[in-house]
Amino acid sequence: MKLTLFAILSVATSVFGQQGGTGPYKAWYKTDPGLPNHTIYLPVPDQHPASMPVLLWGNGACSANGLDFQKFLTNVASQGVIVIANGRPGGQGSSNNQWMHDALRWVRQNAGKTWPYERVDASRVAAAGMSCGGVEAYEMRNSGVVGIGIFNSGLLDGNNRARIMSEVKAPIFYFMGGPSDIAYQNAEQDYRLVPGNVASWKGNLNVGHGGTYQDNEGGKFGWAAVNWVKWVLRQDVSGRAFFTEGGAQRDGWQVESKRLDLIR
Ligand SMILES: *[C@@H]1O[C@H](CO)[C@@H](O)[C@H](O)[C@H]1NC(C)=O
């Protein structure tokens, strides 16, 4: 009874977005009063898989609008992932490095306990972001994340590049826009400094810095991200072929990789 009342109150005080995504679980977004500066993308309540890993997401320009990547993130969530984007829906201004840490703390408090997060697995959290948001994702490298996704981004701080890269422990994937991407040179330098005992993949699709996030379902960047979360986050090997058997190249990505055998 108490739980039902809580559930009704929680619905009444949350905002819900449009349903979509190409994955097996229809996804949408919602807000949560416990995390007011974020937008939560997840499968609709009756379609939760047995276990849902978590993706923390930082927007381009470190924007505080959690809907900036709505199509792309809805598609990712429809794979059975809960995505927590920096910024509430329609939020203004900028996020900072603390916001992903706030989201992670909230995940650890609510996963497995609070409706509708009973099936959230706080032991499987990845961090990713686009452009400025990618730098926010790097900041999570020492927080126990099981994957890092760098989208059209790279470290801006050349003085600390070697030290920061030496601290990367989780598989790290780069989704870049080719030589005309303003972050291209930084990502190339970062990639070369990934420690030898860490799995890494780098793809360049020649579309420039903006990627394809605003296309339906996030376009080719959306499809690449779907395969990434399937394999690295959900441990579903059906995502692996995109990276290891030419799927990305057939989609136009120029790829390099190291030690992908370390990913289970
Ligand atoms: C949300 O963001 C605003 C603006 O940055 C900040 O003042 C406020 O403290 C944040 N709220 C929470 C709960 O973190």
UniProtKB/TrEMBL annotation:
Taxonomically, the superkingdom here is Eukaryota
Native species: Ascobolus immersus RN42
Q: Is Isomerase tagged as a keyword?
A: no
Write down what this protein is called. Alpha/beta-hydrolase
Q: Which residues form the signal peptide?
A: 1-17
Could you tell me the keywords of this UniProt record? Signal
InterPro entries the record matches: AB_hydrolase_fold
